[in-house]
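Before a computer can learn anything about folding, someone has to put a protein's shape into writing. The outcome of that step, for a single protein, is printed below:
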Amino acid sequence: MAQLFVSHSSADNALAAEVKDALADLGYGSVFLDFDPTGGLVPGQAWRDQLFTNLDACDAVVFITTPQSVASQWCHSELALTRWLRKPVLALLVDGADPHPLIADLQGLKISAGQIDRDRVRAALGALGLEQEARWDAGRSPFPGLRAFDESYAAVFFGRDRQIDQLRQLVDPPSRSREGAIIPVLGPSGSGKSSLVRAGLVPALRVSDDWVITDPWTPSDVPLAEMSLALAHAAKLRQAELDADRCAELLRTPGGMAEYVRAIRASGQASAETKVLVVVDQAEELVTMTGEAERTAFLQALTTACTAPSPLRVVMTARTDMWDRVAAETGKSALQVAPTVLHVPPLSRSDLAEVISQPARRSHLTLEDGLVQRLVDDTGGGEALPLLAFTLARLAAESQDGRLTHAAYDAIGGVRGAIASRAGEVVTAGRTEQDVAEAVLHLVNLTDATPHKRLARAADVPPRHREILDDLVDARLVVINEVNDQQVYAPAHESLFSAWPPLAALIEKRRDDLVLRARLERRAGDWREGGATQSGLLAGLELAQARAWRSRNPDMGTADVTAYVDASAARQRRGRLVRAGVGLVVAALAVTLVVVLLVNARADRRRAEQARVGELAAIAQRELTHDPAAAAAALLRGLEINGSDRELRTAARTLLRSPARDVYRSPEQDSFYNIGVGGSVGAVTTGAGRALVWDTATERVLDLPESGALAVRPDGRVLVSVDSKAGIHAYDLAADLPAGGTPTPLSTFSPDDGSVPVLAFSHDGSLLAVARTSWVTLWDLRDPAAPRELTSWHSPKGDPTALAVLDDGRVLSASVSSQLVVWNALGDNSTAELVPGRSDSGVQHLTADAAGEHVLIDFPTFEDVALVDVATGTPVGSFRASLPDAPPTGLPPVSWTSSLSPDGHTVATFDLAGRGYVFGAEDGAYLGGLTGGHTSLVSESLFDDDGMLLSASVDGSLRLWDPRSSELELSDDPRADLCRVFGDRIDDDSWRLAFEDDDREALCPGHERAAPPPLKVSSSADIGALPEVAAPGTVVFTDGFDGATPFGTGPQPVSTGTVTASVKGGRYRMESAGLGPDYTAWRTAPVSGAGATWSVRVTPGRTRGACGLYAGDGATQLVVTLDRDSGEGRAEWFSGSGSTHVLPFTAPPGSAGPLALVDDQGVIAVLLGGRRVATTVDPVLRPPTTIGIATRGDTASCDVDDITLTTAP
């Protein structure tokens, strides 16, 4: 199904909703519209990253062109990203609007607001290759069983959208950079690698005419010929006359693939942008099925064909446990393998449910209530995915009236029993389970602990076994194909070997015979390729074992193995004739023979060690950027075996000089946003609605409650997280916890107002700025167990989007409007433009150095990352996410997120593909790249004090980098260097990747860890300082309540409860009851004459509950109330939409004296008895036009002796 993204101006929301409705009417059910409550932006998550994620995932963009969208900076940015990602665009030109300049070269569709011609929209989308639903025959089963999904099943292939997008970016990166022509797609057997490529990637790329794509193929004994045939067939579909022999010649010729494309262009079926994709499925067959000579010829030709510049890209799927052997072979020919490996993760529970329900929907199949959940529960981990696929295929094939029921599911034995019951059906009269299992042994290859598939030529299978295999073909457990003009049998999937108990038992019983067969077939193949000479024949014990094996297994040997064993036996018989006269010679040479045997034994050990070292080097190469700690583990183990091995030492140096240091991957494939970094700690909010904390020094991972925003104190000891309705929680990350435990909050502060705040610590950790709606509050966090509000500021330019706090108390703020501001929060509370003359809205990242001298600004154009002198506002550097010598393109590079190191020396910036670029801050010199790790957008990145960089990506990974790794001092002992850098980073996951077991061992000597930093910190700022506030003395208005009053008396209408007012004995009494705990009421009177400095003061009489005063300027109402019995007070701002800001304060219980509100040109103070109890800054509030008396809470009785408004002369 085509996924569409609607880009529009917020001024055109109503029109955008109309367009979405029209698309829905046309059958486009997957449409992203930012304000859509069901499928739009998720509250509490980073909206900018969500926009990109949906833009990246879509198939096309529908741009609503109006004067407002043409003028919109964000629409401009969205279109720039769209063109950079090379997405198709349908521009809807509303009411004659001119096209946007970025897409003026594209044909638009004229529409009228309120009268959208749906037929013309359908035709326009169809012309872009965007069918509302991929064509699917609803009468066809959507489940292919044990076979992989192929391109014909693309319309019912669900659950892998993220991996399809990641793989598409690797194969066809937007910037067209080449990190290696071979892209590995790895996963365990049954993980869905083949389906991902065949039914996901290939159809996704075919939408564009820029790709010539071969049919996916699996190597056998002649891979070069097979690839040549695949290329020839792809060329034929483009009307190009290129046969297989010509394609083989082009593969072996430098520049041959460019010639291949030129030949297709000559037929009018390609362009200058055309690229070629070859999909090698199950590439492990190159080392299990292909002989050495053919494998070498294929890899050498592939190396030549892929040498840049070349239009060829090759995707290789392989089992994770076999890729090391494949990589070792590709390394021999210097074939360029991309450093970024796509590991196919297990499907999450929600994805499994989609895999079941969505294909069924497309074929009008219905599942009985609860069956989807039951199938998901029974499938469990990813290793059972083939069993689920076969189960669904059986249920669909045997369903009545298109209904899949619990009863049918039980009848076939459930997910775990469906294959076994199907295999049991082949056991008919005259056949035993043993007979059927014996026949399947022809399809089992055993070279290690795990059985793998084997192709069996029909000619090599006895007739009685061939009959059984044919029945298994009918049962869809075995497939039969034609390879090199011969019919061959193969298992539909390797899960057959473990899912049917009689077969699993027989494989285990015949393990030694199966291993020996595999060895004999390899030896026989090498002998045949070598010309069938006397060299390489069996002798002695090996020949005896082979002859005994053949007598035990007369039906298992192929013609090649039979010929090989016969030739070996014949040579042995000839040798006996010679031996009769050599008895004395043998005796004389006995001692020599013993020596030779000892030497050979040592040589065997050396060869085994060399083989193991080679495997470990290949593992290190595979994991170099994917999981550098796993690469380090493999190298440490290899250097234990042979510390002088040149390949290992070179790989160790490469790893240490590379910037990748560590990785954490989300088991649930969550997207990561809102990063916080401090010390060795990184924290992120996740797409699954939780907070995750990763200590890169100890590898400890904490799960915390769902968080809208978070920040880590720069020393890594304290985390603040917006994860409670009560407010922000502060956590001690050094607290001792049981396994899986969650820390208890130290404190709760900054009450929740329903908004998603922006948080930022000062570098010394003593100050925390919190931005909510249009207010910024500065907190004293020297003691995180007792946070204290210091002051606040009302931004006149709208909601803040990014903050940076300097140690001296200055706060740098960006907002949704067009001004970057410096607020001198602990000085005179003044504000000034950060970059005079620069007008940019929506800046998302501000990163200041520790000294407070410079700040890095991510401007929202995505083109400009500026380093600015804080004191002068002067830009002193500019950076872009691209190589300095990169050739110009039609669109400028897009810099999505950037960061400045605390020492101010290093800048890192990431592009849309997740590639990082590192520069020197002082001179702008390019220092290196951060590539090969993330497979999608990096949402945020931050440096720690040690200069390490942590990056969070929507691909579900956190990565730790050392951007200055090239400067690392190395010794002559690579093991010591590896332990120094990676020793603490080798966790269970890295060990498992390196060695495929869970028995982690210590590869490096232990050491004592440093004590955590103190919980409390000090500050260099004058935290106790308060700005001066003038005391205005000119009376503008006063009321002593000696007679009639403009505040009115009697009842006041309220929705619930009662509010009344009266005057008696020179006092004004306001009483409220039954209003609710948060209700604020006021009685007001109009005033005039107040200037920029003014004060409202009330002198209380007897009070009960929260009583106070009111000042309003026509747009904003400010109410100050105090419960004198408890000492709890608050200043609260109201607008037409309700409460917008609360400033709580406290006073000693029982405090007396007048309550006053003073505004000295935007600096606001609350005074009690002349003593200041609260201060804030609000340049938005104007002089009052109404003042009054107020109550707050369910019940209050407030007596006021007088109320006075004064102003400065």
